[in-house]
């Protein structure tokens, strides 16, 4: 069967280095993850032993420079995210949080000491990071977060951190958490290592989405931190939001991977499933579904590549990333649901990927900015008027 992304010869737009990176990621996952992902999802298992292999391939913080990072282009990073999410959104979420949230926050806002301490280990997969911004009562409105850090000793002593963060990917397995808190001088970022007294985590159970990923609550009860734990160059809400833009960029490529995997599965199934004496792929209604999804998939891929080129040229704007996430995740979840209908009753089985991708994409639709928030970001760019309140 034809690769759904080959309909418009999208590969022609890629350089050889980009194709090689995409192929190397696909090959690793074909051997180490794809055969097991249905079982991992069903059991709620995160394959931690895969993390050093992702590091050895250069995928962790791959778009960052120095400190053991690969320093690839943004587009190459996006293509890696595509292949990761083609297997499972949980794997892409891990890599996104590790590289675009945890490592990026340290790389951009950290001290040289913090970079040397953490980035090489995170890049190699020897350590895991997480990013604590969302709270139980404040998701889309992080400016009103309740987590606070107060400095002792007339502004010269340690910081005391109190509060909680919720829905934190990697939280329960992270060796270091980037935590954002209100201070007297506005929102600041802190690096909190696992094992710091007063810092605890609790994994969120009974998820029906991103089950092959660790999602946790972080709690801080009188956590004492020296000033060297503070990210010295991060001040105000713009700092964590800039990190989120990095993660959203990976999502708009990753969603294409999930959609491609669903469509490939549906194409193969439709060619083998015989009803009324012929494969269901020979029926007009099935071909209408397949053709419509292929057009939507290729449109999403072309949009992702265009935004990748803009990012590599230093021209991308936040509303463009919002437009990409909004369009591509919406397209992917519609493709996953439509593919499920082609598989009929078999579509609800984890033997086939569409139902798993559809469940995962419900989380992708919500995290790193909900569909509603990204709609308002685009709306503000078009009208010049903020409509969040």
Automatic annotation (TrEMBL):
A Gene Ontology molecular-function term? Answer: fatty-acyl-CoA binding
Is Oxidoreductase among this UniProt entry's keywords?
Answer: yes
List residues of the Acyl-CoA dehydrogenase/oxidase C-terminal domain.
235-382
Q: Which SUPFAM superfamilies match?
A: Acyl-CoA dehydrogenase C-terminal domain-like, Acyl-CoA dehydrogenase NM domain-like
Domain Acyl-CoA oxidase/dehydrogenase middle, first and last residues per copy: 130-223
Q: Where does the source fall among the domains of life?
A: Bacteria
Entry annotated with the keyword Transit peptide: yes
- What does this protein need as cofactor? FAD
Question: The Acyl-CoA dehydrogenase/oxidase N-terminal domain covers which part of the protein?
Answer: 16-126
InterPro entries linked: Acyl-CoA_Oxase/DH_mid-dom (IPR006091), Acyl-CoA_Oxase/DH_mid-dom_sf (IPR046373), AcylCo_DH-like_C (IPR036250), AcylCo_DH/oxidase_C (IPR009075), AcylCoA_DH/ox_N (IPR013786), AcylCoA_DH/ox_N_sf (IPR037069), AcylCoA_DH/oxidase_NM_dom_sf (IPR009100), Glutaryl-CoA_DH_mitochondrial (IPR052033)
UniProt-listed Pfam families: Acyl-CoA_dh_1, Acyl-CoA_dh_M, Acyl-CoA_dh_N
Q: Which keywords are on file for this protein?
A: FAD, Flavoprotein, Oxidoreductase, Transit peptide
What GO terms describe the biological role, i.e. biological process, of this protein?
fatty acid beta-oxidation using acyl-CoA dehydrogenase; fatty-acyl-CoA biosynthetic process
Supply the Gene3D superfamilies for this chain.
Acyl-CoA dehydrogenase/oxidase, N-terminal domain (1.10.540.10), Butyryl-CoA Dehydrogenase, subunit A, domain 2 (2.40.110.10), Butyryl-CoA Dehydrogenase, subunit A, domain 3 (1.20.140.10)
Q: Which PANTHER family match?
A: GLUTARYL-COA DEHYDROGENASE, MITOCHONDRIAL
What the record says about family reads: Belongs to the acyl-CoA dehydrogenase family.
Name this polypeptide is given: Acyl-CoA dehydrogenase family protein
């Amino acid at each position: 069967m034809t690769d759904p992304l080959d309909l418009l010869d999208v590969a022609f737009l890629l350089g050889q280095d980009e194709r090689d990176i995409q192929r190397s990621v696909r090959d690793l996952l074909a051997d180490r993850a794809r055969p097991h992902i249905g079982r991992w999802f069903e059991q709620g298992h995160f394959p931690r032993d895969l993390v050093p292999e992702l590091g050895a391939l250069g995928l962790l913080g791959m778009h960052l420079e120095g400190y053991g990072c690969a320093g690839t282009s943004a587009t190459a990073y996006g293509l890696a995210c595509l292949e990761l999410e083609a297997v499972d959104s949980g794997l892409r979420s891990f890599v996104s949080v590790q590289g675009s949230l945890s490592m990026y926050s340290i790389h951009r806002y950290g001290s040289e000491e913090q970079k040397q301490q953490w980035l090489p280990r995170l890049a190699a997969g020897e350590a895991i990071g997480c990013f604590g911004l969302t709270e139980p009562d404040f998701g889309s409105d992080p400016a009103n977060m309740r987590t606070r850090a107060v400095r002792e000793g007339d502004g010269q002593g340690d910081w005391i951190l109190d509060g909680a963060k919720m829905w934190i990917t990697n939280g329960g397995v992270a060796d270091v958490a980037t935590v954002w808190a209100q201070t007297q001088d506005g929102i600041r970022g802190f690096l909190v290592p696992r094992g710091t007294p007063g810092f605890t985590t609790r994994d969120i159970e009974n998820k029906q989405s991103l089950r092959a990923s660790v999602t946790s609550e972080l709690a801080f009860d009188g956590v004492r931190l020296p000033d060297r734990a503070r990210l010295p160059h991060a001040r105000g809400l713009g700092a964590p939001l800039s990190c989120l833009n990095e993660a959203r960029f990976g999502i708009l490529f990753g969603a294409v991977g999930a959609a491609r995997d669903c469509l490939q599965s549906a194409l193969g199934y439709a060619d083998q499933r015989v009803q009324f004496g012929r494969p269901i792929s020979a029926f007009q209604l099935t071909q209408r579904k397949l053709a419509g999804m292929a057009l939507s998939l290729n449109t999403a891929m072309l949009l992702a590549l265009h935004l990748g080129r803009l990012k590599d040229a230093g021209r991308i704007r936040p509303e463009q990333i919002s437009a990409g996430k909004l369009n591509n995740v919406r397209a992917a979840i519609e493709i996953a649901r439509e593919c499920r209908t082609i598989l009929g009753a078999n579509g609800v089985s984890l033997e086939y990927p569409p139902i798993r991708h559809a469940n995962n994409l419900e989380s992708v639709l919500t995290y790193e900015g909900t569909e509603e928030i990204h709609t308002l970001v685009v709306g503000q760019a078009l009208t010049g008027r903020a409509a969040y309140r």
